[in-house]
Design brief:
Layout: E1 5-16, E2 45-51, E3 62-78, H1 84-89, E4 93-95, E5 99-102, E6 114-122, E7 127-145, E8 151-159, E9 161-164, E10 189-199, E11 202-203, E12 207-215, E13 219-221, E14 238-240, E15 245-254, H2 261-268, E16 288-295, E17 309-313, E18 325-332, E19 342-350, E20 353-357
Antiparallel strand pairs: 1-6, 2-3, 3-8, 4-5, 5-20, 6-7, 7-8, 7-9, 7-12, 10-11, 10-16, 12-15, 13-14, 15-19, 16-17, 17-20, 18-19
């Protein structure tokens, strides 16, 4: 029978690097992102420059080799309590005492780089292995939808370079077996049936969906450089972090005049302190707190487990640095065939976030 590759024989692991672009040397620290079905591989896109030189025909004459770009994504990952903080820290910073903290160190707001290994075993038992290194997450999102699990997407991961284990192909690395994950994931996850969302001090119970995103605005650098081995490198030399932005979008059924009016109030009052009228108070913003409890095993009908996740959007709000600010909102009247409740959508600009795990 013909030997083939199949998806059920694949593994995807990641590990933090000690320094940018240095492949990890420790074989026991590789982790899984969580429970996910797909992985978009950052295999290279090569920028060739076409040349129509003097004396050639109307067809292009040459293709000049240019820079390599390697971008991938890990989407729709069910967040698992066992590795939640490690994964959520990748686009933000680091884990410090059961909290995600911005920056790789106290006075260093840069991101740690990571390596990713993908291994696929064919039906004869041999592995095709690729590793990308010098990776940083440019964009990520935490997504909440009614009736579903909490999911994270690392949407734009840019890498410096790669190696692979096919000896007749460039960037060869002699490796025959993949690494094993450090942590064995349980079936625990964060689900819609075990969460509470508090907006500006008011618990809202009709949230249909929400998405909290972070953008790092990474700048790819291809500096003039010299390689001591006398081989020219077409890959990037550095990834520079730019301005970081957080945004929260919310879709909710607008029904309760007492609780749901909170969002309209903060929009119209321009997020003044404590929801006061903006005509007489400056924009200060507030806090949004999402509390998520893990469910044990595969059944939702179980008691809450340990590892409560608390996500706070809007840190230390002030007039100098407003916290969570409602910048846009619409309360619409949908068709009666789709819903008997008013539909509303909200956009919230956030200065900073914190993520903690524990009771």
């Amino acid at each position: 029978m013909t030997t083939i590759y199949r998806t059920e024989q694949a593994s995807v692991l990641w590990q933090k690097e000690a320094s940018f672009g240095t492949r990890p040397s420790t074989a026991t620290e590789w982790e899984q992102f969580g429970i996910h079905d797909t992985f978009e591989a950052p295999d290279p896109e090569i920028a060739y420059e076409p040349m129509w030189q003097v004396g050639s025909s109307r067809n292009r004459s040459k293709l000049l080799r240019g820079k390599w770009t390697m971008k991938g994504r890990v989407s729709d990952v069910r967040v698992n309590p066992d590795t939640a903080l490690k994964v959520l820290a990748l686009p933000i910073g680091r884990v410090d005492n059961l909290s995600v903290v911005e920056g790789r160190a106290t006075n260093d707001e840069r991101l740690d780089s990571i390596s990713i290994q993908v291994a696929v075993k064919d039906t004869s038992g041999s592995y095709f292995i690729r590793e990308w290194y010098g990776g940083k997450i440019n964009r990520a999102s935490l997504d909440f939808s009614e009736g579903e699990d909490l999911r994270v997407s690392l949407d734009d991961i840019t890498f410096k370079d790669m190696v692979q284990n096919q000896s007749d192909i460039d960037k060869y690395l002699s490796v025959t077996t993949p690494f094993s994950p450090k942590t064995t994931l349980t079936g625990n996850r964060y689900v819609f049936a075990a969460g509470q969302m508090v907006f500006f001090g008011q618990t809202l119970g009709r949230i249909k969906s929400a998405s909290l995103s972070v953008e790092n605005n990474l700048e790819e650098k291809y500096y003039w450089t010299y390689n001591a081995s006398n081989t020219a490198s077409q890959t990037l030399t550095d990834l520079i972090e730019g301005r970081r932005t957080y945004n929260l979008t919310v879709e909710m059924d607008f029904a309760d005049p007492t609780t749901d009016m909170t969002m309209f109030k903060w929009l119209m009052n321009q997020s003044a302190a404590n929801g006061a009228k903006g005509s007489s108070s400056p924009t200060v913003g507030g806090q949004i707190v999402l509390s998520l409890y893990p469910i044990g095993g595969e059944s939702v009908g179980q008691n809450y487990g340990s590892g409560k996740l608390t996500i706070t959007a809007g840190i230390n709000p002030s007039s100098n640095q407003p916290g969570a600010v409602v910048t846009n909102g619409k309360i619409s009247i949908p068709s009666l065939s789709s819903s008997g409740l008013l539909a509303s959508n909200w956009t919230i600009d956030v200065n900073s976030i914190s993520i903690t795990q524990g009771s």
